[in-house]
Amino acid sequence: METNSQSSDVLETDDDVPAPAQVRDDTSASIVSVKGLKENWQKWSHEHQEYQKHNPFSNNSKPSVVVPQRGQDDYGKPLQGSMTEQRGKDAHTRIYREVQELCEVIRNIGEHRDGDLDGKVIAVEFGKLFEHYVTISNKLVGILLRARKQGLVDFEGEMLWQGKDEHTVITLLQ
Fold first, then answer.
1. d(CA 73, CA 75)
2. Right CATH number for 83-172 from 3.40.50.800, 3.40.50.2300, 1.10.10.1540, 3.40.50.980?
3. Is residue 85 within 8 Å of 78, Cβ to Cβ?
4. What is the side-by-side strand order in the sheet with 169-172?
5. Where are the domains of the chain?
6. Range list of H helices, 55-164
7. Residue scoring higher pLDDT (2 or 169)
8. Are 11 and 3 in contact (CB under 8 A)?
9. Among residues 1, 58, 85, 126, which one has the fewest Cβ atoms lying within 10 Å of its Cβ?
10. What are phi and psi of 108, to 5 degrees?
11. Residue 147 main-chain phi, psi, to 5 deg
C-alpha cells in the first residue's frame, strides 16, 4: 500500500516534474526567443495602431490630430519631425547643389556679352550647354526651369527641347 500512497504523493506534487528550462538548454532558448518575438510583435502592433490614428489615409480609425485645412500654414506639408519631412529637406539640398553647379557650368562655358546690368552678362546657347552638361546630369531642362524660378537664369519660352531650341540663349542673371 505504500506504493500507492507514494505514487499519489508524486502525482499531487509538482516538484518532480522538470521545468521547461531543465529539460534542455536549447528548448529554454527557444522559449525565451518566442516570448521576445511575441513582445516585439505586440510592441510593433501598438506603435502601428498609434501611427494609423495620425494617418489621413487610414480607413480603420479616425485621426485624433486636427488636420490643417486649405489656406492654413501647415496645409500640404508633412508632419514636423517625420521621415517624409527629412526626405523633402534632403531633396531640396540636392536640387540646390545641382542648380549651383549648373550656374558654375554656365559661368565656365558661357560668353561675356554686353548687357544693361553692370556692363557684362554671361550667356550660352542651349545646344552648347546641353552637349557639355549631358555628361554631368540627365536633368538639364528641369534644373534650368528650377534655376529660372529662383531668378538665377533667364531664357525665352516655357520649355526647352533638344534640337528645336539649340540656339535659344540662356542668360545667367547672378
1. 6
2. 1.10.10.1540
3. yes
4. 111-114, 120-125, 169-172, 153-154
5. 2-54, 83-172
6. 83-109, 126-133, 140-149
7. 169
8. no
9. 1
10. -75, -40
11. -65, -35
The pLDDT tens digits for 38-75 are 999 999 999 998 888 777 777 765 655 566 788 888 78
Distance CA 52, CA 60 (A): 8
Over the stretch 77-129, which tens digit does the pLDDT of each residue have?
888 888 999 999 999 999 999 999 999 999 999 888 766 555 578 999 999 99
The answer to whether the predicted template modeling score (pTM) of the entire model surpasses 0.90 is no
* Predicted pLDDT of residue 98: 93
Cell numbers describing residue 131: 552637349
Is 59 within 8 Å of 65 (Cβ atoms)? no
Write out the three cell numbers for 97. Answer: 547643389
Task: Find, among 89, 164, 67, 72, the residue nearest to 125 by Cα.
Answer: 164
Q: Residues with Cβ < 8 Å from 122, sequence gap 6 or more?
A: 106, 107, 110, 111, 112, 113, 171, 172
